[in-house]
Design brief:
The complex is a heterodimer of chains A (314) and B (366). Chain A has 314 residues and is α/β, with parallel strands linked by helices. Chain A contains 11 helices and 6 strands. In chain A, strands 3-2-1-4-5-6 form a 6-stranded parallel β-sheet, with helices on both faces. In chain A, strand 1, helix 5 and strand 2 form a beta-alpha-beta unit. Chain B is of the alpha+beta class. Classes of the chains: A alpha/beta (314), B alpha+beta (366). Chains A and B meet through helix 3, helix 5, helix 7, helix 8 and helix 10 of A and helix 5, helix 8 and helix 10 of B.
Amino acid sequence: MAQLMTLGITAAFLILLTFAVISWTNFFKTIDRRWVFLLMLFSVAVPVYVIGKTKQTFPEKALPLAQAVFDEIEKLNEGDKVLLAFDFDPGSEGELGPMATMFAFHCATKKLKMYFIALWPLGRQMIDDNIEKVIKPDFPEMIYGEDYMNLGFKAGNEGVINVIVTDIKQLYTTDAYGRDINQIPMMEGIDNIQQMDLILNVSAGFPGTKEWVQYAVTPFPHQIRLVGGCTGVQAPLLYPYIPEQLPGLLAAIKGASEYESLVIGKYGGDGISGKYLEAQRRMGPQLVAHVLMVLLIIAGNIIYFVERTREARP
Amino acid sequence: MSRENRIWLIVFLIGAAALLGRAMFSSQGMAKAYVHAVEVDRVQVADPDADDETATKWISAEDAQTQGITLPAKGSDDRITWTRYDNSNYTAYSKAVAANQTDYQFSPSRTIGTWIAALFTLFVLSFLIRDNPLYKVAESLFIGISAAYWMVVQFWDQITPNLIGNLSPTLVRNWAMPGLGADFQQDLVYIIPGILGIMLLWRLAPKGGWISRWPMAFFIGTFCGLRLVRYLQSDFLTQIRNSIEPLYVKSVKTAADGSAVLDAAGNPLTGFDVWDSLANVILIIGVLSCLVYFFFSFEHKGIVGKTAKLGIWFLMITFGAAFGYTVMGRIALLAIRLEFLFDDWLWLIDPTDKRVEAVVSMLGLY
């Protein structure tokens, strides 16, 4: 019944919109684009404010790709080695920050050994942020060098991956803080990244998940397993690699939100901190802004067809 | 001044007055940053693991005490202390104040940083109204700072440890990276990339710009070879293999609880999987029709034309999905900036409980 009512209200609204657009075609056609920007600003700002105040988020159901990422990490046992490649910067933190936070939280909860690495210059700051945000306050028992370590940034893009798949110490002589890599307990016996049980990549572009697939997974398909999260712009380019070369992928904020709900659902508990709900919070603005976007596209198409019909008239 | 400019000026003045009022006359204020001052105490002790008997290492004073080492006097050459300032928040600060602790402090420098970040966010967003000097300032500063940051990072993360470190480990150990292992050996092969790097910079010289073409040719050749092989493997051969899927998919039947349904002999029952089969059929049709669209040896007429048209539909759906994802990404970026403005700057919302004791009214006014 409720669904029928929703359908009815939606249909009525669309009919009204159609009539409004037809009646004021000239007004909508010549409207200043800044009104559209303002509308979009409110459609994002109001949900950000309301959700920020109420701390309520929309319910989330994980789709198979997010479930696959979750399952890949769940398969690992305590003490297994995970390479976390944070290939992003503040420019894409809105989408990728929640994924990186949740990866660190999930790995720390499962007591996996975390090796952080970055192929983007600001990736190191993203790693440091997550260590400060997740590991130090919520997992104070974890010791740097024994449970987690930061290898920092190295320039060279895919060239770095190409080297470290066979010899990590050729490029990394020290960690990100200048400590001798041979003196770090976690690096004992680690010669290359084929020894990692899983690679988790957070990717904002080049170099990113595509390069990890090309230079790490493809030459060593039986030794290296990779799952990751990426920006919305990249997602369509990465789908062809699923599932053979890339078993799971968190696509944009929606993927992050699904993965977040899975991890929090299993490990979160009731009093989970708001810092672990970032992606789910950002789905509110997404919903309202997408509805607005759909309405604008419908309105634009109605104007187009009305114009075409008028032009076709003798 | 035009009418439009007058309106904008009034809007900005009202906004500035509201900000000033909120920052100065509300009880908690806004945009304030707090730090936790942590005293760091390090002492220099003999390194028992090193081969060299005179070798020393720096450890925390706490660890030294645990090991029973007598601490040298503060200020001596063997003991260094300094204060580290970690990020904190209003909640921790107010608790510390209530407990008469002084290690949580208000940070003027980080507060200014928050204001600069907020104002520059607004400067950049102001481009949506129209191009203006504030946007230009933000854009120019961003480009300049990015270029400088990139240079510094490359120097300290790449040239220092990997080039100079390999050519002269002792120099780098004494000068920049005391953590570089004592067993790290000199490797003179790195002279070659060093020379290639210098040759590349030669294009900045008034004469002999051609010298930079040689290392450039080396890099291009190397990367072409590297990329060709990898693209062939991952984006061509493996993709062909991944596209060869069964059109008739059989899957194990499952009960409501997710367990496999067994036959009389105890083997799992399998059956025709409609959705997986349909997905594979669409995949094959999509791949073939898109390939036909990009096949120009035949004129796109008749069956070839119709298949190519189907390919266009598949491509359009792909572009639509890509556009949808792009919109999602951009909205997420706008959302995080507004979260920053509302949370860290204006203190209107507090989703991460950074200001538990600060009660903020709906309009942010008291």
